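Dear colleagues,

For the upcoming journal club I promised to circulate an example of a predicted protein-ligand complex. I picked one with alpha-L-arabinofuranose because it came up in last month's discussion. The inputs are reproduced below in full, followed by the predicted structure.
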Amino acid sequence: MKFAKILSVLVSVAFVATMVGCGPAATPVPPTTAPALTSGGYVIPVAKCAPNCKYSDMTVGFIQTGSESGWRAANTSSFKETATQQGVTLKFYDAQNKIENQVSAFHQFNQDPSVNVIVLAALDVTGYDDVLAEAKANGKIVILEDRRIDAAPTTYYTYIGSDFITEGHKSAAALCDLLKNSAKKNVVEISGAVGASAAIDRAKGFREKMGDCGMTITQSQTGNWGVPESKAVMAAFLKQSTDIQAVFAHNDEEAIGAIQAIEEAGLTPGKDIFVLGLDATADGFKYLISGELSADVECNPLLAPQVYEAALKAMNGDATLPTWVPSQEGQFFSAQGPDALKAILATRKY
Ligand code: AHR
């Protein structure tokens, strides 16, 4: 009996000892800060300098599509100029419109210890899954600019770019208005580069609304965002049939190519055939002012300030930004008249 009593006392002393920590010191458990998670479920690789990171702590690996248009040139300048102004270190890569170049540059930036933010202007909507996963594994913040991709929002912090479907809607509404007195409404489409979200979504948006006034797309082909190729495409369309009342061109260069072909065919753009472009660059304005271009739906290239601001938020663990920040954009018409258009053009940066 006496032995059992002693044993139970010993057991309870041992139990208390561990509770009050006579045993080996427990390793302090750092307070568990929940990972910063965006509304899209993206786990933000918060930077070491958080929450007081500054632009001077930011090194951006920027993967541009190429230099296919006036819009693209303005977009590139926006990133280079704003980086200088903000004191951001910018590693700029021009992929010359080849997706394989984009993927290998993305991999390089993933391996580059100095890079903490990767910004992608995607040529295509697919093909980036591996490098997105590698970026996550390597703690790189990923931001999409200009073009969306078909990837889960868990793979990037945010997308800053245009609502291309709405641009398609606006284009259809503008052509409906231009063709309101025309018995026939045959439209030919010069689309952007195959695979680009800008081309896919503009085409989709236009088709969603073209029925509102009974427009039909009678011919469609890519002009790859350029003047010479689009001129050849339009010349081929006119050879096929001159029963065309309007052109839906996915950017200003394609619209200008179409205008050149229409004039070479002895027809008058803005009278025999209405031409609509997208971007509203300075070149587009020139043709609006001359009346050869009837409408131009804006696509805003000056995205760098928003992108760098978002990147800094991410570095500081701010998860409040939505997964998509659509750009603010307008539209312009030759009917506004040369003087008004010249006045507007004078205020624009691209
Ligand atoms: O993604 C935007 C598009 O890309 C512009 O409309 C076009 O000019 C550029 O190539």
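Two points we might discuss: Residues 68-69, 71-72, 146-147, 198, 225, 251, 278-279, 299 surround alpha-L-arabinofuranose (CB under 6 Å). The two ends are 97 Å apart (CA to CA).

See you all on Thursday,
B. R.
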